Amino acid sequence: QNLLELENDRRQADARLANIPLAGELREEMADFILRHKEFPAALQKSIAERLYLEDVKSENTFGPFTLAQTAKVSVNPKTGRPYYLVHWATFDGSANLPLVYMVTVEDSSETMIRQLVDRNGKLN
């Protein structure tokens, strides 16, 4: 459930941020409010918290429900002369509340890929 909300917030971040003043402006308003009213600016605190949250979610530094696979390395297996790939991806297990990161090495045995990627010396083209 939380991940779905997070992904929804990520999609709507730009539209919501457009309606919230910049963090610096909110800080100035908070300081002014405290000095004038001698009270804590709860509404402004909520606005700045929402702004900082949306900026963080938008930056994609926050772990989402699924990270697409990426190839981290392409090389040649010296024993077989076949190309291999190191691939990683991730997902979030909501029931365990843990991110799961997967890594796999895949060796490609198709002749077409071997011809395209490996030279006569057994090195990548």
Descriptive report:
Helices cover 45% and strands 26% of the residues. The mean pLDDT is 89. It is of the alpha+beta class and 125 residues long. It has two domains: 57 residues, no CATH class; 52 residues, no CATH class. The chain has a three-stranded antiparallel sheet with strand order 1-2-3. The chain contains four helices and three strands, in the order αααβββα.
Strand sequence of the main sheet, in spatial order? 1-2-3
Helical element count? 4
Q: Could you give the distance between the termini?
A: 46 Å
Low-confidence stretches: none
Question: Structural class from helices and strands?
Answer: alpha+beta
Task: Supply database-style keywords.
125 residues, alpha+beta, 2 domains, 3-stranded antiparallel β-sheet, 4 helices, 3 strands, elongated
Helices and strands in order:
Elements: H1 2-18, H2 23-37, H3 42-58, E1 66-76, E2 83-93, E3 98-107, H4 111-117
Antiparallel strand pairs: 1-2, 2-3
TL;DR?
By secondary structure, the chain is an alpha+beta fold. It is built from four helices and three strands, in the order αααβββα.
